[in-house]
Design a protein that fits this description.
Blueprint lengths: L3 E10 L2 H9 L1 H7 L4 E3 L9 E3 L13 E5 L3 E6 L4 H7 L3 H7 L5 E9 L4 E11 L4 H6 L8 H15 L10 H5 L3
Antiparallel strand pairs: 1-7, 2-3, 4-5, 5-6, 6-7
């Protein structure tokens, strides 16, 4: 069976070092990733811990750093679907049980200076089986999910203007009680 991949590229007026910090520092990720903090020492083989809200403990969802070459390349395994996703998207227990069996995937960020004080950021998320609901979520095709395009547009706006486009994803705020 062949696997699917999603790629998104944007140019951001910033430096590679600042973009790297935005991808790896919890204080920064929380600002554009709807409160999500990521924590790691960013060495190959290290866990990438996930925090849904600042007051929560960081959780180990099985994500692991696969490659790190600051400030040009970062890759890690991606978490599996969680019960919070079922709540967010309104899945039944049966739907969640089915979707939770999808294989773990991988996300890779490539940062390249692109002239004029800009950095080209390419996000490649791969390893999806055909029909994957996680693929639909990260690509923005799943109702209520902006996916990588929404997150990267938020990141771009934050780095270029100091403000984000959205403070909560379209449906996640209801599941987290942010309204």
């Amino acid at each position: 069976m062949s696997t699917m991949e999603f790629t998104y590229t944007t140019r951001i007026a910033t430096t590679p070092a600042q973009l790297w910090a935005a991808l790896t520092e919890p204080e920064f990720t929380r600002r554009y990733w709807f409160g999500v903090g990521m924590q790691s020492d960013w060495r190959v083989g290290s866990p990438v811990k996930w925090q849904n809200m600042p007051e929560e403990e960081f959780q180990d969802l099985g994500q692991v750093v696969l490659a790190a070459d600051p400030p040009r390349l970062l890759s890690y395994s991606w978490h599996l679907l969680q019960p919070a996703h079922a709540q967010l998207f309104g899945w039944t227990d049966e739907e969640f049980a089915k979707y939770a069996k999808e294989p773990r995937t991988k996300v890779t960020f490539e940062l390249e200076p692109d002239g004029d004080g800009k950095v080209r950021l390419t996000v490649t998320h791969d390893g999806f089986e055909p029909g994957s609901v996680m693929y639909r979520a990260i690509s923005g095709q799943l109702e209520g999910s902006g996916g990588w395009p929404g997150l990267m547009n938020n990141l771009k706006a934050l780095l270029e203007t100091g403000t984000v486009l959205a403070t909560v994803p379209s449906a996640a705020h209801a599941a987290r009680g942010d309204e």
